[in-house]
Specification:
heterodimer, A: alpha+beta, Substrate Binding Domain Of DNAk, Chain A, domain 1, 16 helices, disordered N terminus, B: mainly alpha, Helix Hairpins, Monooxygenase, 2 domains
């Protein structure tokens, strides 16, 4: 508890210490890490001066290579070199299309995705965490210090399972996630703050593997997302595939090795990039069997072959506009984000659609990470002159299964998060003590057309006659866009809370065991760090609680409550003398539980305070 | 007990509200209590902040939309417009509904026809909507408020269907 923060929003508890926090753009093809330095967000370079770190992980027998270093294994050891792992995040093996065309050995016995490498089976979350570790190391070397937290960006259209998987990967990489934020929102922050823009903007974000469109209202440092939409599997990669397909057909290349397939795609990508600058391009491909082909491609042919892909982005734009109840002429600007938006025919198509010049003066590869760095800086508690607040939305509706395989929506898409909705249920049989609830995400009416998030059973309902028990279930989406569900039986007030974990994600135990594995390598360091961190946290909390008690304690709490809090503080402060992080943490937890209600009361006080300021402002006007 | 949305956003409990004030109050509260203000702090404060912000978001979204606001006011009078006892709809309105639905089905692929239909319906909606303030002026008009709010609910649904159809047309 650091209630000081309520009194002085945005001010660090340690005023002279600048807290290092980074923004991470964990992309399908490339990843970046950025940090605010001397007031300006900056992309951090790795030791070879690269800003873009390819999202590629190579698992050799005794080594893991990430990024640039992993790149050349693509054409020599495709099986052990994992690319575009973001496409696998939060998915079951059965979700993966064209599995045969991928060079990987999947574990067919598992519903989870597990890829066989020379270092054993790897889960997409582990592979992602290896990329994140590389980014973390890059940042710590570049900044010469330990980072205390990170903001990680995800596609706005990511569902609950994909967000949870991303957060788990960060945990596994030893990163403290300050917030998951949506990529287009991060881009808007970079544009809005750097260029002091105000008004209603569309962010068109076509990355390597995902497409998002968000509509935001920018007003006095508040970034309010009005609507978002997208396509979960559409990006620059698909344009590469389309070119590769053309080369294959033209040259009747049927039986290719995985390495040759990879090399074909690499060449396709090069052609695509060349075509952003000239009207035609040529490449020479050498295959492993000694065959050599020369392939040339002009802008027109490329345009025709990929027109459908470009067009696939239009419908999500229309949906977002419709949900925001806006027409094209009310849009003040269109921001282009993601490397794929460099393709000229995308630019012209979107320009025509909106009848507007596009905003693309910031580097489309970097803008997301830069925005994330801004947000990380603020969230870490560093004081900033810019009062920044992001109000984002949930991209997909959330519902539960009802009679006849239909879905009843509980939280509608594009609701501002955090959001909570409650639903009351009752028993339909005498003496019924359990009830199962099926949670789904998606827009369609049938259960089979939506994504199943979880199927859970509420137990411990006191036996009563049918219809007498009243079970209130609360569905909450937090500021990371993650769902949690809690339930209570109203007549007995029995509460049970559960976190939704989709069956194809990792369980808490799996994460713990993976964490242990990685800890073993540097366990002593970690123990010392854990102790130091616990002591610092304990001290901060004691100061904060004491301050809050001095200020508001006697008004809001009874003598008895104050006494209890004070004795918990005493216990905590005496535990700080001992070198046992677990003991300290348990006393921190204890104190936090006791001050929970106090925190809620202070929150109410803050609401009153906010509006008091408001009415004074009004009087002055 | 759940908190009253009007009280929470410090607005009078009436149908006609100052939307500018609603925005201002909402934004001022958000600046103080949003979870982003507590990101580096302990779990208990994060939880308290998420709970409160979720309430404020719900309140704001409910009061911002005239139809949701009307439903909510009726809810404060213990009236649930989806209750069976209010399901009777006037004959002429029902006929109108069916006409619109038929037209939508007949022109699902015709952009101009759908846009015209959407325009007609919007005019109709605005007309009905303009009756709402009067309905809430005194308690004896509440049956009118129920009728009008229910009609607006129907219209809102068909508008959504037309919009969906329009989006499907390339």
């Amino acid at each position: 508890m650091a209630l000081l923060q309520i009194a002085e929003p945005g001010q660090s508890t340690l005023p002279h210490q600048h807290k290092l926090a980074v923004g991470i753009d964990l992309g399908t093809t490339n990843s970046l890490v950025a940090c605010v330095q001397s007031g300006l967000p900056t992309i951090l370079k790795d030791m070879d001066e690269n800003k873009l770190i390819p999202s590629i992980v190579y698992y050799g027998k005794n080594e893991i290579k990430v990024g640039q270093e992993a790149l050349h294994y693509l054409s020599t050891d495709a099986k052990n070199t994992i690319v575009s792992v973001k496409r696998f995040m939060g998915h079951a093996l059965s979700d993966i299309q064209y599995r045969e065309s991928l060079p990987y050995d999947f574990n067919g016995a598992s519903t989870d995705i597990q890829i066989k490498t020379s270092q054993g089976y790897k889960h997409p979350i582990e592979i992602s965490s290896d990329i994140l570790k590389k980014l973390k190391d890059t940042a710590e070397v570049s900044l010469c210090g330990e980072i205390i937290g990170a903001v990680i960006t995800v596609p706005a259209y990511f569902d609950d399972a994909q967000r949870q998987a991303t957060k788990d990967a960060a945990k596994l990489a030893g990163l403290n996630v300050l917030r998951l934020i949506n990529e287009p929102t991060a881009a808007a922050v970079a544009y809005g703050l750097d260029q002091k823009k105000e008004g209603t903007f569309v962010i068109y974000d076509l990355g390597g593997g995902t497409f998002d469109v968000s509509i935001l209202k920018l007003h006095k440092g508040i970034f309010e997302v009005l609507a978002t939409n997208g396509h979960p599997h559409l990006g620059g990669d698909d344009f590469d595939q389309a070119i590769a397909e053309m080369i294959r057909q033209d040259n009747q290349l049927d039986q290719l090795s995985h390495e040759d397939k990879r090399s074909l795609i690499t060449h396709a990508k090069t052609l695509k990039e060349k075509l952003t600058k000239s009207s035609s391009a040529k490449t020479i491909i050498n295959f492993s069997n000694g065959k050599e082909i020369i392939f040339s491609l002009d802008q027109d042919t490329f345009l025709k072959a990929t027109h459908d892909l470009v067009h696939k982005t239009i419908q999500p734009i229309r949906r977002a506009l419709s949900d925001a109840k806006l027409s094209i002429d009310t849009i003040d600007g269109v921001v282009m984000v993601g490397g794929a938006t460099r393709m000229p025919h995308i630019q012209s198509e979107i320009k025509t659609f909106f009848k507007k010049d596009l905003l693309n003066d910031l580097n489309p590869d970097e803008v997301v990470a830069l925005g994330a760095a801004r947000q990380a800086y603020t969230l870490a508690g560093n004081k900033s002159d810019q009062d920044l607040l992001l109000l984002d939305v949930t991209p997909l509706s959330l519902g539960i299964e009802t009679m006849g395989g239909l879905v009843e929506k509980i939280i509608h898409r594009n609701s501002t998060i955090p959001i909570a909705k409650t639903q009351e249920f009752t028993t339909f049989k005498d003496g019924q003590t359990a009830m199962s609830i099926h949670v789904l995400q998606g827009e369609r009416e049938r259960v089979s057309d939506c994504r199943s998030l979880a199927n859970f059973t509420l137990t411990g309902i006191p036996p009563m006659v049918a219809g007498a028990a009243k079970i209130r279930v609360t569905f909450q989406i937090d500021a990371d866009g993650l769902l949690s569900v809690s339930a209570s039986e109203l007549s007995t007030n029995k509460e049970t809370t559960m976190t939704i974990k989709p069956s194809y994600g990792l369980s808490e135990e799996q994460i713990t065991s993976m964490l242990k594995k990685s800890f073993e390598k540097a366990s002593e360091d970690k123990e010392i760090r854990a102790l130091v961190e616990a002591k610092i946290e304990g001290e901060q909390i004691i100061t904060a609680v004491q301050n809050a008690l001095d200020k508001n304690g006697s008004q809001l709490l009874s003598k008895d409550e104050i006494k209890k809090i004070e004795s918990a503080m005493l216990l905590l402060s005496s535990s700080l003398q001992l070198d046992d992080p677990d003991l300290i943490n348990s006393h921190i937890k204890n104190l936090n539980t006791l001050t929970e209600l106090f925190a809620a009361m202070l929150m109410d006080e803050s609401v009153d305070k906010a509006l008091k300021g408001q009415s004074i402002d009004k009087v002055n006007l | 007990m759940r908190i009253n949305f009007f009280t929470l956003l410090q607005l009078p409990e009436t149908f006609v509200i100052d939307l500018k004030k609603l925005d201002q109050h909402y934004q001022s509260i958000q600046k103080e209590i949003h979870p982003d203000r507590f990101a580096s702090l302990a779990d208990e404060e994060k939880i308290a902040s998420i709970k409160k912000t979720a309430e404020v978001n719900d309140a704001y979204q409910t009061l911002k939309s005239p139809i949701r606001r009307a439903e909510y006011l009726l809810h404060l009078y213990d009236i649930n417009i989806h209750d069976e006892k209010y399901t009777v709809v006037p004959q002429d309105f029902l006929m109108q509904q069916m006409e619109w639905r038929e037209e939508l089905e007949a022109h699902k692929q015709n952009k101009e026809a759908l846009e015209k239909l959407a325009n007609d319906i919007e005019k109709n909606k605005n007309e009905i909507m303009s009756q709402l303030p009067k309905c809430f002026e005194n308690k004896s008009n509440l049956h009118d408020a129920i009728k009008v709010t229910r009609e607006l609910n129907f219209i809102e649904k068909i508008e959504q269907h037309i919009n969906d159809a329009l989006i499907e047309i390339i």
